[in-house]
Amino acid sequence: MLRKFLKFKFKLILIMLVLFLCLEHGVLNSERAKYGIASGDPFLKQAVLTFDDGPREHGIQELLAVMREHGVHATFFLVGKFAERYSDITREIYNSGHEIANHSYTHPKLYKLWVEKIMREAERCDEVLENLNLRKTMFLRPPGGGFNIKIFNAMRRMNLKLGLWSLNTADYTGRPASEIVNLVLRGVKPGMVILMHSGVPNTVKALPEIIKGLKAKGYELVRLDDLWNCWRI
Ligand SMILES: [Zn+2]
Q1: Which of 76, 91, 98, 147 has minimal CB crowding within 10 Å?
Q2: How buried is residue 44: exposed, middle or buried, by Cβ count under 10 Å (0-12/13-18/19+)?
């Protein structure tokens, strides 16, 4: 009886292990990965810096200067109406080799809107970028990160992918730069996508230490589209 029970338990553990591997690294994950990304290859020491809610009038030049100095590129999720207002800064981000991605036009809670409205928000942001002759965005990050089936429907129709994150620095809360640095360097894992924001002074202050710390740990800093391409090979 005991032997039978142990045999059953062993089989159960084996099934659960196979299911876990399928979900995390196998067939099921690659199926899920068609629609978006929140982190990359768990065996590759890559990380992505993402900056939401820009471009802002202040703070972007400093962010760009730090990244230029350290030779790294990031992904900027831009709000269309700000990209329109600060078109020169938008162009400068793009021309500095960073990825521009879609963060809607007016920054509403997309999950509360109908599919057509969601599409219009994403389209208007893309139109602004198109008028600046920038390449079409690959990723959409819904403001606040909340998403539902309506957002997926809209994105599928627009050929956009969901670009989420796996580490939220909560830099918008006004936490000190040292806390942001510690959070990233202690929490870093291969394939991590880090959420930060444009125009936050403490983020600008924290950035040099974050970049140096991640490099010292052997991480390569890439854009979200690079992470996506590596993950899918
Ligand atoms: Zn946002």
Answers
A1: 91
A2: middle
